[in-house]
Specification:
The chain is mostly helical. The protein contains 21 helices and no strands. The chain has a domain of about 180 residues.
Length: about 450
């Protein structure tokens, strides 16, 4: 079964890698890697990467600009908004010419991503090997966007999953610490709530979380000193760039007015769904934070109060990963972190019953509806909808067609949170019962 799984995983991922690489050679290919690559090249040449004019000069001088480049692609490259810590990880690639640099980047991304998928299958295979393989292959066969755009999410997700495997499977702790620290440093909004789980879980997990935080802090301070030395006023440019991509029609705006609002690379957070009904940031932001805040509070309280076993830990992660996607800005490639839900789904399926069937149905739907091809199909179907003059019925249809990822992520979060709260309570009662001596039960007395 292990050999069969490895072949299927390599085949499914190979399809996405080949497809993504083919699309990457088109007009706007590898746009996300071009952003971090030329941004780091700009810093290495002692220019401010957060200055649009300085980055654009380096971009043009080194032949990075492509003829007839779209507005969205050009804006994504020249408005640099990545964390300063990303420079440290991209610098080894940026020292190389573009050709070998982007090929090496894609190879490293594929390596970490495939390794992470195999590790999650190996855990789920203890309970339901076929179901685990099915879910992993669904995820892998439709992630060409990562390999087409070259987004850092591919590496970040791989590192985060490897770290979880190391911590929960009691593998080399230092490997997990370094992997989780790197993922936090590059994309804290992807790995942040996963790190929070280990912090709240207590015991050795909390120690691992604090050690990870220490390593991340060292990386962050180093990056801050480097960028500040080259460009003392970089923070002004960073804030300006963040504001520019978040204005009405900007590439990071969650509503339909965004450049990518009706495309397969749409924003998938909860704000994106709520904005269909109330297209006002003063409404959809607080509403989203309220819903996500209540879910996060319930999850955090249970995690902090109850010391759970390994199986329950995977239920906790299955609940927090979809919530991670909902609470703040994310795109479909970030949702590949849902592979962390595979072990929990496999365990519920092995137990049978309605809960197991719901787990498989929702998990499979979550992986499908955050995939690139289904989202592209939905965007085509909804292309001619005019939401501005539509009634409530049309708005509901628009949410279903254009924001299916947000809806399924919210449903997954609620379902796995319910399972987690129920399982954590049962585990706590079982542990308490085992801790009570037999003579303390009614009708008995010590000898």
């Amino acid at each position: 079964m292990r050999r069969k799984a490895l072949v299927c995983i390599l085949l499914a991922s190979g399809i996405s890698i080949w497809w993504g690489f083919a699309m990457g050679q088109s007009l706007n290919g590898w746009v996300d890697f071009r952003a971090v690559y030329y941004g780091t090249r700009c810093l290495l040449e002692h220019h401010n990467p957060y200055s649009v004019s300085e980055l654009e000069a380096v971009y043009r001088a080194e032949g990075g600009e492509r003829p007839s480049e779209t507005v969205a692609a050009r804006q994504a490259v020249t408005l640099y908004v990545n964390m300063p810590t990303s420079f440290l990880f991209v610098a080894p690639f940026a020292m190389l010419p573009w050709g070998p640099a982007h090929l090496l980047w894609l190879s490293v991304t594929a390596g970490f991503f495939i390794l992470a998928a195999f590790l999650m299958w190996s855990i789920g295979a203890r309970d339901a090997p076929e179901v685990s393989l099915l879910l992993i292959c669904i995820l892998l066969i439709d992630c060409e966007g990562i390999f087409c755009a070259g987004n850092t999410a591919g590496i970040v997700i791989g590192l985060c999953v490897v770290a979880v495997w190391c911590f929960l499977e009691e593998r080399p702790a230092w490997v997990g610490i370094l992997c989780l620290a790197a993922s936090l440093a590059i994309k804290p909004h992807d790995a942040g709530l996963v790190w929070l789980y280990f912090l709240l879980a207590g015991g050795v997990y909390r120690r691992r979380a604090l050690e990870t935080l220490l390593v991340t802090a060292v990386v962050g301070v180093s990056a801050f000193l480097w960028v500040s030395h080259v460009a003392p006023h970089w923070m002004v440019g960073w804030r300006s760039n963040l504001a520019a991509i978040s204005v009405r029609g900007g590439i990071n705006e969650p509503d339909l007015a965004s450049i990518t609002g009706r495309s397969a690379s749409m924003v998938i957070d909860l704000q994106a769904a709520i904005s269909i009904f109330w297209d006002d940031a003063h409404i959809y932001n607080p509403a989203s934070y309220l819903v996500c805040g209540v879910l996060l509070l319930a999850w955090s309280a249970r995690t902090f109060r109850v010391r759970c076993g390994q199986a329950t830990a995977y239920f906790a992660l299955a609940a927090i990963v979809p919530l991670t996607m909902l609470v703040t800005y994310h795109r479909p490639w970030d949702a590949k972190l849902l592979m962390l839900a595979v072990p929990a789904c496999a365990l519920l399926w092995a137990e049978g019953g309605l809960t197991g069937r719901l787990a498989l149905g929702l998990s499979a739907a979550g992986l499908v509806l955050t995939g690139d091809v289904p989202l592209a199909i939905c965007a085509i179907l909804a292309k001619k909808l005019n939401v501005g003059t539509a009634g409530i019925g049309a708005k509901v249809l628009t949410v279903v067609l254009l924001r299916p990822a947000s809806l399924i992520l919210l449903t997954m979060c609620i379902f796995y949170l319910w399972v987690y709260l129920r399982r954590a309570g049962s585990d706590a009662q079982g542990a308490a019962a085992q801790a009570i001596p037999a003579w303390s039960e009614p009708g008995s007395k010590p000898e």
